[in-house]
Amino acid sequence: MDPPSALASPSYVKLVDTYKRAAGTAASVTAYAVLARGMARELLPHDLCALVSWGASLVRARLETPPAERCTVVVRRLEDDPSNCERYNAFYIDVHDYLATRIDPRSMRRLCLSGDGGGARKVVSMDHGDSMTDLFEGVKFTWKSVAGEGPDGVDSFELSFDAEHTDMALASYVPSITAAVEQARSLNCALRIFMNEGASWRGISHHHPATFGTLAMDPPTKQAVIADIDRFLKRKEYYRRIGKAWKRGYLLYGPPGTGKSSLVAAVANYLRFNLYDLDLAEVRYNSMLQRLLIGMPNKSILVIEDIDCCFTAASREDGKTPVTAEYDSDDCSNTQQNITLSGLLNFIDGLWSTSGEERIIIFTTNYKDRLDQALLRPGRMDMHVYMGYCGWEAFKTLARNYFLVDDHPLFQEIQGLLAQVEVTPAQVSEMLLRSEDVDVALQGLMEFLTTKMQGEIDAGKA
Ligand SMILES: Nc1ncnc2c1ncn2[C@@H]1O[C@H](COP(=O)(O)OP(=O)(O)OP(=O)(O)O)[C@@H](O)[C@H]1O
Questions:
Q1: Which of the listed residues 17, 132, 298, 405 has the most CB atoms within 10 Å of its CB?
Q2: Residue 359 Cβ contacting ligand 1 at under 6 Å
Q3: CATH of the domain at 234
């Protein structure tokens, strides 16, 4: 509500401002009247009249709009021991960690500083009695840190907001806190790779440096994989609605050394999910397989490499019959097993699907044409990703990774050779690793490609 225009002259501006503030916040008409009397001395009579009626309308508006009702949610600390399920409130810790990421230290009178034991990471938080405001989807949420009273008092955080936002607070804001904290925690903790040992998993740290940035592959395929993963992550509600388990399967296929294992590592690093590398040669019975799969947590990746080598000829043919037989081929080592592909697939699609969520399954193979039809059936593996020979774009990624160069006088010649010769990214990487000098390394690669091309021409002639 603007003041009358006559009061906009510079000599009145300050008065009007004071008046506006007082009238806008006055709790009673009396306060307004006292103020008006004081101001009467300063104004011309007709301006005073205008000011008084404007002020009255401000007070009226104020009195007619009651302050929004507030709602308060209390998050108590309870016990520190997570094993005490009934008394441990994990959400209190979530709130503590979340607020540490939202706090503006300059706006606080007092701050608490704590370390994680290792000394490297310090957490800043509110002291008891202090409060801070967090903005979520345009709504203000106020947090207050409250000390427990007495020797057995329980510390708490109090969350207050306009009552009209209660649904949003409980259905969106509170879950967003847990999600944000979980994501931050997963970024801070080292990834692990688990391998099967009998019917249980043994884990070690996983520090594979591959990322989508370092992966040399056809750019549209890379983008398609990233987009697919991003879409999958966002679709929890969608999967629930259509009644499908929240899992996604990828089949990576292509010649050896084209980066299938590197892509698996890049996916794990991108998602910050632990890897469960299942060696089926170590799994004797379906029951053992089931125990292993059930032992996998949410937000994890199941990997089965060289899936074409994992099943006996007989079990691959009918997809069902459990057999104990030796299977030998040029590319796979002998395996002796009693589990079937259908046992694996049925379990992944059946019980396993309902016992967890947000899981990725990746099968790799060098020979897609040798795979059982049961595995290739539409809907079985959601995305088939071809990892091919090193093309020009993939080479540029490798050159950037190894030498931080985007251009070089030998690039044009190398581009021409790559169009004619089939080399894997692993072979190119190997050549680039041979020297720290970019000129020497690229010259070596060129000679390697030329020799290979000549060899292929000679072989064609023979
Ligand atoms: N696409 C790629 N991008 C970057 N580096 C790659 C790529 N492909 C291979 N390499 C390099 O070659 C090494 C071996 O590749 P990797 O094990 O990922 O290939 P693979 O396709 O899984 O091979 P295999 O089928 O024999 O298991 C990697 O550690 C990496 O250094």
A1: 132
A2: no
A3: 3.40.50.300
Q: Give the nearest ligand 1 atom to 265 CA.
A: 18
**Residue pair 391/418 in contact by the 8 Å Cβ criterion:** yes
Q: Are 175 and 84 within one domain?
A: yes
Residues recorded for the chain: 462
147 and 82 fall within a common domain: yes
Structural domain containing residue 291:
192-386
- Looking at 103-143, list the stretches that DSSP marks H as alpha helix, in order from N- to C-terminal side: none
As a whole number of angstroms, the distance between CA 459 and CA 462 comes to 5
CB 249 within 8 A of CB 344: no
Per the structure, the count of domains in the chain is 4
d(CA 264, CA 75): 40
How far, in Å, from the CA of 426 to the mean position of ligand 1? 5
Q: Is the CB of 365 under 6 A from ligand 1?
A: no
pTM of the model as a whole: 0.65
Q: Whose CA is nearest to atom 17 of ligand 1?
A: 261
Tokens representing 442 are: 């690229």
Do 360 and 219 belong to one domain?
yes
Per-position pLDDT tens, the chain of length 462: 676 776 676 666 766 676 666 655 544 444 455 556 656 666 677 777 776 777 777 667 666 666 679 999 999 987 666 556 566 788 998 999 899 889 888 888 788 887 755 555 677 888 889 999 999 999 999 999 999 888 778 899 999 999 999 999 999 999 999 999 988 877 777 889 999 998 899 999 888 999 999 999 999 999 999 999 999 999 888 888 887 888 899 999 999 999 999 999 999 999 999 999 999 988 888 888 888 998 898 889 999 999 988 775 444 444 444 433 333 444 454 444 567 888 788 888 877 777 778 899 999 999 999 888 888 887 789 999 999 999 999 999 999 999 999 999 999 999 999 999 999 999 999 999 999 999 999 999 999 999 999 988 888 766
